[in-house]
Amino acid sequence: MSEKMDKKALKKKKKKKSMVMKSVVLILLLVVLAVCIFFLAKTLKKDQAQGSTQKPDTEQSQDGADATDDTETGDDASSDAQDTAAPATDAKTTAMEQAEYLAATYDYDGAIETLNGVEGAADDPEITAKIAEYQATKDSCVPVNMDEVTHIFYHSLIVDPDRGFAGDDSIAAGFKQWMTTVDEFNKITQAMYDNGYVLVRLRDLVVETTDADGTVHFTPNTELKLPAGKKAFVMSLDDLSYYHSYDGRGIASKIVLDENGKPTCEYVQADGTTVTGAYDCVPLLDQFIAEHPDASYHGAKGMIALTGYDGILGYRTDIAYKTHENLTADQQAWLDAHPDFNWDDECAEAKKVADAIKDDGWEFASHTWGHIRIGDASMERIQTDTQKWLEYVAPLVGGTDTIIFAHGQDLADWHDYTTDNEKFNYLSSQGFHFYCNVDSSQYFLQIRDNYVRQGRRNLDGYRLWNDVHGDVNRTSDLFDASQILDPRRTDVPAL
């Protein structure tokens, strides 16, 4: 009986176990089925979504091409459209940037013309808004008062005052009197910019016309306009020839071109090593205007007045270096130290540098070949000197119609030049029509039918020192000299 009951219980246990296993299998099947249904539904939904974005065959192809061909054609068209749009966008961006730069230099007409040259400019709200902005700014500008345009000038800058001011010889005295340090130049540039001064060209002040026979005429430029509060000024540089007497005095030795073909300076350090960089007015002003384009009207730079007797720009280009005739002791010593010197190559390099300087916005002027005193010199000497400048300097710089007199002298007093002035008649016949002297007053400008004449203010050690320590301050309209004077400038000899 007991054995029978055990068999019955065992059978019941097996049946229960079988039911459990079937239940597990069923649950697993249901899970698998659910997963399959989920993925199937997702696939159907994706197909429907893709199907809804497809165009009918009649829209995709007019020649009965299959679906695959239609899809490829659509991709190609989209790519072509993007390729077409990209250059258009780039052209607009470039034009907008160029226009912004031109407007910053007060060339509003150039900015507007640039934007109008963009395809579809009239229908582009961004461009039309900018054009309206530039036109409004232009309309708000006021004419420059020609009677209030000052002209400042510098000599080569002193990089190392410890060397430039050292000693008690005439060179040291001259450096203290007539030279400005790099730090002083940079501070003046910034201060004048902060005070609203804008650099213009001397020739920007006038409108020049020429008759058929070559006779020139000048009238004031009434279209020279700047925003209210801005003040125009002219700048020039004297003696950018790097004379032999400058050697070892902490001044740059020549103008050279950097890796981008832009003018920079060669400078010999106290230890004798040669480096290049912004060690004089040309590259320093270039850098400032690049960072502050509104410091310059239409990209104007300064006027560089050159002599010729020691060459130009640090290059030994005078004919004496070729003929070895009438050499000074300094010139002979330099030639002895450079036995491989080739005059033709030197002139070619000087011309290359001069061209780059002009391309950079600078202009050249005569400072007379021999740095002569034009007022004291005889007519014979003036003629000889002028012919040397025209023969040995003019071809390297492309000629000029401007003469900046040395030693502050002039052809006459403050009265107008007249046709009975023999020196004026001669220089005019040689193509000079712009004349500059030295005048410590704020403004001196004569615009006459046959010439333009302007006085210049020396911003040098003598002027800065006396504005700080003397009884009369002549630069207060430009800057605060007490904030400019280099502390290494401890004295300036009396003139």
Describe the structure.
- The protein has 16 helices and 17 strands.
- The longest helix is centred in the N-terminal third of the chain and has 52 residues, at 2-53.
- The termini are far apart.
- The protein folds into two domains: 90-142; 144-481, Glycoside hydrolase/deacetylase (TIM Barrel, Alpha-Beta Barrel), CATH 3.20.20.370.
- The chain has helices at 2-53, 57-60, 67-104, 108-116, 125-140, 161-164, 170-178, 182-194, 281-291, 320-323, 329-337, 343-359, 379-392, 394-397, 422-429, 461-469, and strands at 142-143, 150-154, 197-199, 206-210, 216-220, 225-226, 231-238, 254-257, 263-268, 274-277, 303-306, 363-366, 402-404, 434-436, 445-448, 451-454, 457-458.
- The protein is globular, with a radius of gyration of 39 Å.
- Mean pLDDT is 88; it is low at 1-10 and 44-74.
- With 495 residues, the chain is an alpha/beta fold.
- Strands 2, 3, 7, 11, 12 and 17 form a six-stranded parallel β-sheet that branches. It has a four-stranded mixed β-sheet with strand order 13-14-16-15, with no helix packed on it. A three-stranded antiparallel β-sheet has the order 8-9-10.
